[in-house]
Specification:
By secondary structure, the protein is mostly helical. The longest helix has 52 residues.
Length: 503
């Protein structure tokens, strides 16, 4: 790709993000504006913003790269990431909005009347957010390096700075506008080039997969990874249950006016994600034909970026590659913005000890500096793999807390704490072992690389058993809280914003 086209694409996306974010600054004045956009975001607008932040580097680049490398097994990633919203719709979205909380730790304390559980939830929110931010910054560095030759750290710094500026300027209200725009940009950036790529594929005689390993590549549970049956089903569990535990996903449901709007938002999200996830799989399949050399170099995440130039060439290929690059940077910016808001909200309230705008802005800087440093110093794994690990931690910690906290009145603070520490702690240990000391092989390697199949059941069992053993610790206001969570807004139950019970 002509570097000038790529640089222009990046500049246009960055400038657009800053300008749209600046528009949000004119509308953001109160604390509620910064945290939850004053709970006035419509379902379609909110669904577009959720699609913008949810479709990260893993969705835009990583899925196609993993399908190129491993084949049919990796189709479970987009299926799981979309299906997770169905679980969220059925079990969580409306009650969570009715809770009146700003963040996941807010919900934990409101439901269980426990500052200790809140603090544990806060630590997990920050860890999940940082784990998710790392591959965004690493991928930005790879993309910027591929088009300009800039150092690998430069792309991450650029994304971190733009995200910080947007979040500092207008918080949730500001990034809602940015993320909605970026969803439609990402969809266009994949869909339009794909039309021309398929035309070129047909013009070349529509060749099928190469001979040799094509049969196994196209078969489920034959990817060549250790223990593919276990790994596949553990990945499915992580993606289906992890979505509800992702802080940057859940915080968007607090921005809906009511529980009914939250459910409508989730239905629209399912449609938007379904439309988008049809595309990366086709890029991966085309990459198997025209970009097999990326397997040897370990650069499979670049297949989406390289295919336009390889199949079309010349100026048309360069222009479409620039469009794809713009979409990739939109993915980095939108996901990083949502993560930064969710992490900054928790840092401001629970670490800096204040929930005001000034604390939020200081927390924003802290939210991006740590993962940026980690992205520059740790080894780079396939982006979708790292995001999958974040899903495993979320599924092993917040999924049990939300499901039991919303639907089981007998949950106690000791039970919630024990489940969070057991499931979240074991999942975090597996993740750190994989990132720092991996890759590991054999059954131990599979258990560490895909921990959800054993950490999620442990979290649920521990949470239930300890709660049953400590029934004298059931919060005294549990009946009132459960009524608040499950009563439709039309019945006029008091739903003022919940705030922490501390001076």
């Amino acid at each position: 790709m002509n570097p000038a086209y790529g640089v222009t694409a990046v500049v246009v996306v960055v400038v657009a993000a800053v300008l749209i974010g600046g528009f949000g600054l004119r509308l953001s004045r109160t604390t509620s504006d910064f945290y939850v956009a004053s709970r006035t975001v419509s379902p379609l607008w909110n669904a577009s913003a959720i699609g913008g932040e949810y479709l990260s580097a893993a969705s835009f680049l990583g899925i196609a790269g993993l399908i190129l490398a491993y084949g049919a097994d990796m189709l479970w990633l987009p299926v799981g990431w979309t299906g997770g919203y169905l679980v969220l719709l059925v079990l969580v979205s409306a009650p969570l909005r009715r809770s009146g909380a700003y963040t996941l730790p807010d919900f934990a304390e409101a439901r269980l009347s426990s500052v200790a559980v809140r603090r544990t939830a806060s630590v997990l929110v920050v860890l999940i957010g940082w784990l998710y931010l790392m591959p965004q910054f690493q991928s930005a560095g790879v993309v910027l390096h591929s088009i300009t030759g800039a150092p690998d750290w430069a792309g991450g710094v650029l994304v971190a700075v733009v995200v910080a500026v947007n979040v500092l300027s207008g918080g949730m209200r500001s990034i809602t506008f940015v993320q909605a725009f970026q969803y439609w940009l990402k969809l266009t950036a994949l869909a339009l080039p794909l039309v021309f790529l398929l035309m070129a594929w047909r013009a070349r005689g529509a060749p099928g997969l190469p001979a040799g390993d094509s049969a196994s590549w196209a078969l489920p549970l034959a990817s060549g990874r250790d223990y593919p049956v276990y790994s596949t089903y553990s990945l499915i569990l992580a993606t289906f249950l992890g979505t509800m535990g992702l802080p940057h996903v859940l915080v968007r449901f607090y921005t809906n006016p009511d529980g009914r709007a939250a459910r409508r938002t989730t239905l629209v999200v399912l449609s938007l994600l379904g439309a988008f996830y049809l595309l990366p799989a086709i890029y991966g399949a085309l990459g198997r034909i025209y970009a097999r050399d990326l397997l040897a170099t370990g650069q499979t995440d670049q297949v989406v970026l390289t295919l336009p130039a390889r199949l079309l060439g010349g100026t048309p290929g360069d222009l479409l590659a620039a469009l794809v690059t713009a979409g990739a940077f939109a993915a980095f910016l939108s996901t990083s913005s949502g993560l930064t808001v969710s992490v900054a909200g928790v840092i401001a309230q629970d670490i800096l000890g204040g929930g005001g705008v000034r604390s939020f802005r200081v927390a924003t800087v802290l939210a991006v500096i740590v993962p940026l440093a980690l992205a520059s110093t740790t080894r780079s794994l396939p982006v979708a793999d790292v995001v999958g690990l974040a899903f495993a931690v979320a599924a092993s910690s917040f999924c049990p807390l939300l499901v039991l906290g919303i639907w089981w009145w007998r949950l106690t603070p000791p039970g919630a704490m024990a489940g969070l520490l057991a499931g979240g702690g074991l999942a975090c240990t597996a993740v750190l072992t994989t990132i720092v000391g991996g890759p590991h092989h054999g059954m131990a390697g599979a258990l560490l690389a895909q921990p959800a199949a054993w950490t999620v059941p442990i979290a649920f069992v521990v949470m239930v058993v300890v709660s049953l053993a400590t029934q004298h610790r059931v919060p005294g206001d549990v009946a009132r809280v459960m009524v608040r969570l499950h009563t439709p807004e039309m019945l006029n139950v008091d739903r003022g914003d919940w705030r922490p019970r501390r001076s």
